[in-house]
Amino acid sequence: MHSILLQAQGQSSWISFLPMVGILVVFYFFMIRPQQKKAKDQKKFTEEIKKGDFVVTIGGIHARVDEVQDDTLIIEVERGGRIKISKSAVSMESTKAVAAKK
Q1: Residue 10 confidence class, pLDDT cut points 50, 70, 90
Q2: pLDDT tens column, 40-96
Q3: How many CA atoms, within 13 angstroms, populate the side-chain half-sphere of residue 30?
């Protein structure tokens, strides 16, 4: 009788663990995986920036790329003003939204 109770308790604890596994799987596919994909797309976008491209920074500055360096860009704003920014300061979503409007 004692072994039957232990087996029943072992199965019920295993079965009660399944919802937690299900929650983790759902959390991965709806939260973690999309964030990883977005980060990968942003990295690819910043690596493909070249001279002459129109970009929008996270701060909302609209400019053309004048020079591309390792981790930085020199952008040209109105009237020949040049600013040195980090590549990570370029907003992929804003840049693509402005390009779609043109």
Answers
A1: low
A2: 999 999 999 999 999 999 999 999 999 999 899 999 998 889 999 999 999 999 989
A3: 6
Residue 38 phi, psi dihedral angles, 5° rounding: -65, -40
pLDDT computed for residue 15 by the predictor:
79
Task: State which H helix or E strand residue 33 sits in.
Answer: helix 33-47
Q: Are residues 10 and 40 in the same domain?
A: yes
Contact call for residues 85 and 71 (beta carbons, < 8 A): no
Full domain range(s) for residue 16: 1-48
Q: 67 vs 6, 29, 75, 92, 100, CA distance in Å? A: 71, 39, 7, 18, 24
- What DSSP state is assigned to residue 69? -
24 and 42 in a single domain? The answer is yes
Q: Domains in the chain: how many in total?
A: 2
- Is the C-alpha dihedral spanning 34, 36, 39, 43 positive or negative? negative
> Do 83 and 39 reside in the same domain of the chain?
no
